[in-house]
Amino acid sequence: MEVARHWRLKKQRYTMTGEICPHCEAKIFPPRDVCPSCGEDARDVYQFSGQGEVYSFTTVYDAPAGFEDGAPYTLALIKLDEGPMVTAQLTDLDSRGIEIGMPVEMVTRKLRSDGERGMLVYGYKFRPLLAAAA
Amino acid sequence: MTPSSRTPNTSDIVIAGLGMTPVGEHWNLALRELALEAITAALNDAAGLRPNVLYVANMLSPILSGQSQLGALLADFAGFRGIEAVTVEAAGASGGAALRQAELAIASGSADLVLVVGVEKMTDRVSSDVEAALSTASDADYEAVHGATRTAQAAMLMQRYLHEYQIPADALSGFGLLAHAHAVANPLAMFRKAISPEAYARAPMLSEPVSIYDAAPNADGAAAILLARRGSIPERLDRPTVGIVGSAVATAPPALHDQDDPLTLASAARAAATAFQRAGLTTADVDFFELHDVFSVFAALALEASGFAGRGEGWRLALDGQGSRESQLPILTFGGSKARGDTGGATGVYQVAEAALQLQGRAGEAQVAGAKIGMTQCVGGSGGTCATHLLAILEAA
Question: Above 90 in pLDDT, residue B287?
Fold first, then answer.
């Protein structure tokens, strides 16, 4: 079930809350408390915008256990506007093709399920940036 | 192949014996039986020497076989009850990492004869279970939870590689073609059949742009190497003495998205540079290179990271006859993971065993003529760990 494991990541999964390094100002996601750029202590909370662009992408057909229901799905590396990169699924894709460099924004969706009696895990996916919001 | 120009630094660590099982779907063998087959072969090859210490290289046994503590299990099962024995795990780099630990044990003076066995059993389980198990090499909280698989991560790397360097979709085809062509000469390989460029072009996609000919098949297999302190073994082995002249393990963030530049295999760059420095060698001295080719894009990245090709140029080293056994830099001389079969944590041990056979002149139809210095490199996950080895002939037979 791993309830605690998913619960303690809720700020990252639901709101993309990360950190900023008070020493070198690197923006950090996921939070890790030690700055990956300068190695100093970095615990100041930083709110990411949830906007970025596609660095690369692919389609998963042969899904791992727990993800079979959603297959096939599109997986991407997203370069966030603030600098860090994240791995996430792309969603709400219409007939437009996906391209490297395409602007995207974070939305909250179901990530995985663990059977009828298991947990539903929610978190961030990314969709093409809506024209009105652009 | 150009003859090596430089003499490597000397080494106290030599290969006393080696053994490998065929790679494939061993439904008739348990993990321990597979390991025993390789161990028995290695000890026979070493004229009956027995180890003081055992290191087991394995990635997936706790997940796929429900079995941990392989050190104790295999020490007992192989008849070495009581000896020091532990598992070394670094995903796909486990084999090279275990060998490195064995070398350090000998170098420290605490052991003279150290056995390393790499063993992996993947085919007992359905593919969704194996994919989930393999994805534990990534970041469980930030990659696997999003449905990222090892294949999908390689596909994203390959997509970016093709995009960034503006090269044709089949630019990486050379690695799969070479691996399959070379495996014809390897009696232990899973696929001993050459494939054509036409077959590559028609291959079904696993995760675009990765097709079945860009990805190594999951397999079962075991390989064992008995390492010895030079001078501690009787001089009754009628073959050249091959030693480990340089080795290194290095790391990078296991999460692909945490790497500063995902197209730079940073762990491989660091491990290769350190191994070269320890051996007193450079890329120009290497007569053949057993590199990480679980996905074709990694082969290109490994060549670039290790200094054999410039950034964005690694793919060229598998085209137009390059990479063949007669070329300047032969690669994947026994078929690599692509055609030998991917044995996960055992791969690094297979690579070093194959390199030793080349240098001992025992490679049969896979022989690279006149090889004196060989290099091997295995990688865990999307580049989190890399183990690099340089081997050389220390003494002629």
Answer: yes
**pTM value surpassing 0.80:** yes
Q: Where are the domains of chain B?
A: 13-126+216-395
Q: Which of B94, B48, B104 is nearest to B71 (CA)?
A: B94
Mean of pLDDT values over B73-92: 98
Superfamily of B13-126+216-395 according to CATH: Thiolase/Chalcone synthase (3.40.47.10)
Beta carbons of B249 and B268 less than 8 angstroms apart: no
Least confident of A117-126, B235-244, B356-365: B235-244
Q: Give the pLDDT confidence score for residue A17 in this predicted structure.
A: 97
B312 sits in the region (left: phi over 0; alpha: psi -120 to 50; else beta) called: left
Mutation for B interface: A87, A110, A124, most B CBs within 10 A: A87
Distance (Å, whole) CA B300 – CA B315: 5
pLDDT tens-digit map of B191-207:
999 999 999 999 999 99
Average pLDDT, chain A: 92
B198's CB contacts (< 8 A; 6+ apart) are none
Cβ atoms within 10 Å of B69's Cβ, excluding its own: 13
Q: Do A56 and B160 touch (CB under 8 A)?
A: yes
Residue B185, Cβ neighbours under 10 Å: how many?
Answer: 17
Quick one: pLDDT at residue A132?
59
Helix (H, G, I), strand (E, B) or coil at B293: coil
**Residues of A with CB below 8 A from B129's CB?**
65
Q: Do B147 and A67 touch (CB under 8 A)?
A: yes
Across chain B, mean pLDDT equals 96
Could you tell me how many CB contacts below 8 A there are between chain A and chain B?
Answer: 102
Per-residue CA distances from B242 to A19, A21, B118, B389, B396 (Å): 51, 50, 20, 12, 9
Q: How confident is the model at residue B6 (pLDDT cuts 50, 70, 90)?
A: confident
Which residue from A minimizes the CA distance to B131?
Answer: A64
Element at B375 (helix H, strand E): strand B373-380
CA distance B148 to chain A (A): 7
What's the Cα-to-Cα distance from B335 to each of B65, B160, B163, B289, B368, rounded to whole Å? 27, 26, 28, 12, 13
